[in-house]
Amino acid sequence: MAVADAIPVRWKVGTGNIVTHLTGRPTAPLYEALHWVDARLGRMNSYGWRTVDRIPQVHNFDDAMMEAYKNGITPIILFEYEGSYQTLNPPQPIGSYHDWFRAGVEFSRRFRPNGEWGREHGIRDFGATLYTAINEPDVQNTIPKKAYRDALEGLADGIHSVDAQLKVVPAGFAACNIDGDATLRGYGPVIADLLESGKLDGIDLHTYYNDRWYPLIKGREFSAQSCFDRIKAAMGLKRDINFYSTEFNISRSGSWTDAQVVAKLFLTAFWDNMGIVGANGRPATALAFPWGLPDTPDVDGPGYAMAVAANPWKPEERAKVLQRVLKLAGDMTIVSSDPYHSGTLHLTGADADLFVWNNRRGWTDVKDGRWEITLPAGARKIELWGWDGLRSVHKPSGDRFIFEALPAGETYMALVTR
Question: Which InterPro entries does the record associate with it (predicted)?
């Protein structure tokens, strides 16, 4: 995976889950959804990736890899394990450093681009370059901290022994979002040395914005950037790490039940996750996956469902916003992001630039709705977009353009065609 700011936006977007076990839900709606929004990635998870004796079962991924390949979706691999497995009959302990090292070797050797699986099928330059493990350990908070650290180090060392360019990150954390715990209930500091050394490329944060518990309308304190910064500080990190999110969404619940209100909020949430910065303002987002893209309300309720029907798949308003964003910015890369002051981003592509402004209370210090952008050379047309589509069209004159008195409480996008 390239440095975060060099990756086109659509290659940072996907959703989950591509399942590899027999009891999983049908994957057709997931692929329909990904194709409709024109994203490129999918999180591939498995609850059957090893035996109870911790022997890797790499061929359990074979069919799912082929399905992903035929659908033009590049997988990231998630090795599932949760604390409740320790109480099963028979119990399934997390395993040792050596157990996870072996898994890292066998899975990456098989499924990296041009690995064993690709060579067997005559498929070149397709495979998993990112591997994650142990989703949301800070929710149940039952896995021993040292055992958790040893597992991640073993996985990373095993994968890097096959190919040092492959990336490994811990699967998502939720405690900062849930209750503001920047230590991630202790799981953060215990892996700080693995992040500092580069064995782990970054951290994956799950951010579910909620009108009561994580209300982004109250300011950037309730942002993914805020959690990212506080977690790094709690770890005492000096190395500049990347940001990953394999789950984020606006909770359609409480006072946020109107589909259009939630869609408007979703646009801000998207750019919050996509516009994360690291040291010296470096764009740091490697992945920004909304959760629930293939899901309908009958699955887990309306909270995170981004579809209104599954067969065939039909989009809910948040999915329409995502498609709109990827049509505008999917092939662009991020030039700059300023989440701490102006609340703006700048992206560039082959024949256009996109400027984004989170014009919400506590997200910007720009006053009175007066948004000034510096135009790229050769600017021919300016389009103002909102969550619901095109708002206005303008002809540029000079090297700057000012939008006057834009109403607060939403995110705007200005597409400048060159």
Answer: GH
Are 70 and 122 contacting, i.e. CB atoms less than 8 angstroms apart? no
> Could you give the 3-state DSSP secondary structure of residue 175?
helix
- Tell me the pLDDT tens digit for each residue of 117-159: 999 999 999 999 999 999 999 999 999 999 999 999 999 999 9
Give start-end residues of each CATH 2.60.40 domain in the chain. 344-417
Quote the CA–CA distance of 268 and 292 in Å, as a whole number: 17
Model pTM above 0.90: yes
Cβ(272)–Cβ(229) below 8 Å: no
CATH 3.20.20.80 for domain 4-331, yes or no, is yes
Distance CA 267, CA 272 (A): 9
Q: Transcribe 84-141 into DSSP letters.
A: GGGGSSS------HHHHHHHHHHHHHHHSTTSHHHHHHT--S-S--EEEE-S-HHHH-
Q: Closest by alpha carbon to 80, among 42, 46, 56?
A: 46
CATH 3.20.20.80 residue ranges in the chain? 4-331
DSSP element (H, E) containing 383: strand 381-386
Cβ-contact 124, 84 below 8 angstroms: no
- Say which CATH topology domain 344-417 has: Immunoglobulin-like (2.60.40)
Q: What is the pLDDT of residues 67-110, one digit of tens each?
A: 999 999 999 999 999 888 888 888 889 999 999 999 999 999 99
